[in-house]
Batch of 2 targets.
Target 1
Amino acid sequence: MFIQLALLCLTWTISARPLFTDVPQLVLSKSAPRPLVIWHGLGDTALSEGISSFIEDIKTAHPGIFIYSVQIPLNGTLDEERKAGFYGKAEEQAKEGCDQINSVKELSDGFDGMGFSQGGLFLRSYAQYCDGPPLRNLITFGTPHYGISSLIPCPTPPSLTCLLAARAARAGIYTSWAQSHLVQAQYYRDPARLEEFLDTNSYLRDLNAEGYRLASEGEPGGIQDGGKGLRGIENLVAVLFDADRTVSPAQSAHFATYSPENKTLIIPLEQQRLYTEDWIGLRALDERGGFVREHCPGEHMDLGTGDCGMRMVEKYVGGQNGLASV
Ligand SMILES: *[C@@H]1O[C@H](CO)[C@@H](O)[C@H](O)[C@H]1NC(C)=O
Ligand SMILES: *[C@@H]1O[C@H](CO)[C@@H](O)[C@H](O)[C@H]1NC(C)=O
């Protein structure tokens, strides 16, 4: 049974690093490791303390790696960046990230992507819709791939931005205003209100090709059909936080959702039509071994417990272009 503890002290930005005392020594290879793009999560900024120290750790593990952290809006103030996590049109923010990545010459031969929470959805947008250098390994941490069915609670103490966004969302999550101005609303998928979701949502619905496949309308391969889907990437590594009480359901990180009939029953990916009918190429990816379901032991975005963040970095980041590597 999944219990939402709203009063728990929650953080969903990544926490400043615990001490990594024994970063393993890696054998240096001749060519530089593949670059990495990071897309941060809700409430965080591109170069916050937590992200910056994580970047330093990645550079220690993979010497010479180039890392780009997506900043929305580009050159914005910290306050504008934090606000953009809550307010804005998801498709437009995704497009902005696509343009940024295209403008960075170090990324032009391809890169790996690491998305934190909702940042993982934006990197999926890149993979599915953006005309740019190839995204090879996509690693998502606690990303609600099949949506959230309740709002992500504000941290303690809450920011005013978070409280106002939550109040606006509660006033009507499936209004056209919320669906074009509140980021969380654009991946809010309430299984008990599926028709409203399919009628008013576009961002998550299209990313999962859900409206198109149910209605069988539109142009195959178009935006509503999830674009290229996951057919262009080499590996999707989806990390679920086992003690996640922030995203509901936490298993959305592995493309699971609650049953429309029973809100405590989780429908696993293998029983979703998204998978059985392979709407976005996820099943094909899985069948060739390119879909890896990983776990971290902690709460949402706790990368420190069990050294989980660095464990993923060592396994899935720093390969070389031209060599398929998990
Ligand atoms: C952002 O800042 C960089 C470096 O200061 C500058 O080169 C670039 O033109 C700026 N871009 C925008 C859109 O403001
Ligand atoms: C809902 O699912 C749970 C399992 O998660 C089960 O124990 C319970 O009996 C179900 N309730 C109904 C009404 O089917």
Note: The pocket of 2-acetamido-2-deoxy-beta-D-glucopyranose (ligand 1) is lined by residues 74-75 (CB under 6 Å).
Target 2
Amino acid sequence: MSQDTYLSKLESAHDIEVFGEALYTSIARLTRDPRWREVWVTLAKLETQTKERLADRLRPEKAVREKPYRRWMGRVLGFAAAVAPRSWLLRVMVSETADYIKLFEELRAVAPPEDAALVDYIVAHEEAQAVFAREALAGASATFLAPVEALLER
Ligand SMILES: [Fe+2]
């Protein structure tokens, strides 16, 4: 894989985080229950952190621009997600995170050794959201954010 192709994969990952940050922020804004609002805020923080780590990696090599339509899509889908039944949303998250884990594992397979820690972190941040969604569906609210919190500002 050429360096340009690899960098464009990192850019796509950055786009996904812009979307995720807007999605969770939008859900948080529309959630009345303060405990659940804090859950979505925490998930948004993980997306922001991941987005920034990708931007830091890309910036020396190319201009990093947050695509407004990615943010807009996240906001709009966040609005829909916030009014949907929570169990439906969590089931969608289980399915979506499985797809993203696969995508990021493919990225890990082509990442140069100097990016191994970054790409491991990106896979882990997706796995943490999968754990959250599965445990939230199972009602394990005391522990469902532990993997997400462990990754924040690590
Ligand atoms: Fe993410």
Note: The chain has a mean pLDDT of 95.
